[in-house]
Amino acid sequence: MRILSSQVAEHVGETVCVAGWLHRVRALKSVTFAVVRDRAGLVQVVAADAELVKRLGELPEETVVEVEGTATANPQAPGGVEITSPVLRELSDPALTPPFDIYRPVVTAALPTVLDNAAVTLRHPRLRAPFEISAASVSGFRGALEGLGFTEIHTPKVVSSATESGANVFKLDWFGRNAYLAQSPQFYKQTMVGVFERVFEVGPVFRAEPHDTARHLAQYTSLDAELGFVTDHRDVMAVVRDAVAGMVAAIAERAPAAVELLKVELPEVPAEIPSIHFADAQELLARETDEDPRGEPDLAPAHERWLCDWAVREHGSQFLFVTGYPMAKRPFYTHPDPERPEFSNSFDLLFRGLELVTGGQRLHRHSDYLAALAARGESPEPYAGYLAAFAHGMPPHGGFALGLERFVARMTGADNIRWTTLFPRDLHRLTP
Ligand code: AMO
C-alpha cells in the first residue's frame, strides 16, 4: 500500500511504498542517496544495488517515481528514517531540468523567472508555502463566517455594469452586448442580504488597474461578506475582526509546516481592533510628521504605513481600522455618517503598513439610492436589477472585502503580492 513520506517512520521494519518526485540524487562511493518528495515532505532512499545506482545516476531530478522498500530507522537520515533495499519504478518520462535549482533551501531565482515557470518553480517548498497559508486562510475565513451564521454564495463574474467607481473595468463582448468583468460581487452580495441576511463569497474579481505596483493585480481573490440588521459600520467591523482572527488561527492549525519554513510571525488579533477616524488620522499625521494631508480625500500609502507603526506603538496592535473616509472618495452605495454627512460610515483595515480590507454600512432605502445616483449625475437605468432589491424591503446592512493575496503577502513578509499569487494577471502578464 502506498503511504506518504511523513508516514514512513510509523512503519519501521515493514515494506513501504512511496510515490513522488525525484528531489535529489547524491552518489557516494558505495551507495547512492535519493530523496523523494511528495505532498507531505521528503524521504531518503538508499540504493546499494549496482544496477539501481546506475539508473539513479541517469535519471533526471523531478522524474516521477514510485519506490518500494524497507522502512529502516537511521538517526542520521532526515526525519530519522529511510527506505532501504528499494525497488524503483518510473511513473512517467524522465523530467526536464527545472529552470533553476529548486533543491537548495534558499530561493535564488528572481520573481519573473519564478512566475514564468510557475508549474515547476512552485514545487520549491519555500515558494509553495505561501499557497498553503493562503488555503488555510480561506478555510479560516469560511469557518469563522459559517460560525456566525453566514451562507456562502457564488455570483456572476461577467456583469452588465461597473460596481466600483472609476474606469478600471475590463469590457468584453457578450453575444454582441457590452459586458464587464466583475470588479467585486458588491451588488449581488447586497441583494442577497434580502434573501439570506448574512452572506459571504470567495471568488475572483477583476480590476483594470493601469498601475504597476507590488500591491495591485488585475485579477485577485476577494473574500467578501455582507450582513443585514446592522446599527452602523461598527457591527461590520466586529465581523471583520472575527474573520481575521479565524484566518490567523487556521494558519497556525492547518499550515504549521509553512509557518515554520517561512518563519511567519502570526499576529495577535486584539478582541477589539483599535480604530481612528479619518479626520483624526489626518490631524495626527499633520501634528507628528513632516506632512500635512488635511484636505486630501484619501490616505497615501506612506500615511498608511506611518499609521500602522503608530498603532503598534500606541496600541500594541498590528491591525488598525481607519473609519469615516470622506463620502467624496467612496462609491455611491456608501452610507453617510448621519452626524457628519461629508464623512461616511465606512472603514479600511490596515495591517503591517497596507490596506487589507474595505467595508462599511450601505444605503438601504430605495429613495436614497435614487438620490445618490442623481447627485453623481448617473442614471438609475443600468442598475435596475440591483435597485429592485431596495424597493422590495432591505434592512440596514453593511459588509466588507478582504484581498487574499495582500493578506498572505503581509503574513509571509513577501515584498510583492505576485509571490502569493499562483498565476498573476497584471498589466504585463497574461501567461502562463
Ligand atoms: P476595494 O476596492 O477597496 O473594495 O477592495 C477591497 C480589498 O481588495 C484588495 N484589493 C486588491 N488586491 C489586489 N489587487 C488589486 N488591484 C486590489 N484592489 C483591491 C484590497 C482591498 O482592501 N466592494 C468593496 C468592498 C466592500 O465595501 O464590501 C471593494 O471592492 O485588500
From TrEMBL:
Highest taxon of the lineage: Bacteria
InterPro entries xref list: Aa-tRNA-synt_II (IPR004364), aa-tRNA-synth_II (IPR006195), aa-tRNA-synth_II/BPL/LPL (IPR045864), Asp-tRNA_synthase_2 (IPR004523), Asp/Asn-tRNA-synth_IIb (IPR002312), NA-bd_OB-fold (IPR012340), NA-bd_OB_tRNA (IPR004365)
Residue numbers spanned by region Aspartate: 186-189
UniProt keyword Aminoacyl-tRNA synthetase, yes or no: yes
Site residues, Important for tRNA non-discrimination: 78
GO terms for biological process, alphabetical: aspartyl-tRNA aminoacylation
Keyword terms, alphabetized: Aminoacyl-tRNA synthetase, ATP-binding, Cytoplasm, Ligase, Nucleotide-binding, Protein biosynthesis
Subunit comment: Homodimer.
Assigned protein family: Belongs to the class-II aminoacyl-tRNA synthetase family. Type 2 subfamily.
Protein name, entry field: Aspartate--tRNA(Asp/Asn) ligase
Lineage: Bacteria, Bacillati, Actinomycetota, Actinomycetes, Streptosporangiales
Primary gene name: aspC
